[in-house]
Amino acid sequence: MSDVYLSRAGVQKLQDELKELKTSERPTVRAALQRAREFGDLSENAEYSAAKERLMFLEQRIAKLEETLSRARLIENENIPDDKVYIGATVELKDLTKKKGLTYTLVSPEEADFEEGKISTVSPIGKGLLGKEEGDEVEIEVPAGKLHYKILKISR
Prior knowledge:
single chain, 156 residues, 39% helix
């Protein structure tokens, strides 16, 4: 399996979620499962089925978080050029069609959050910006059509 590149904040966010799931959610769901077992006939016990399904989902999420964290590499420890758009870069853009400014930070898929301006390096926009330099004009194909941007500034 390949490495997962994360920022320090991204690693912390995943660690916090994992801790919450293990120390709070898991015991709560296990207790609900135990209570549901006490109702008797498990074949027709909706509470038991729901609690069992929730526990299964929870255990899968815990396993995924542990697996991701085991492959995590901090972006700040990597030798990433500052003059081009790569993971960890914050990019100020000008939308040449709408004549407005945008700012995105390129992150791994695990950290992507469009509401916070964090886009994945594997998203269409992320892929289109990778390796580009300040001053470059890029045309990016997205499901809604083509986007035309000019890269104004790259920072870390």
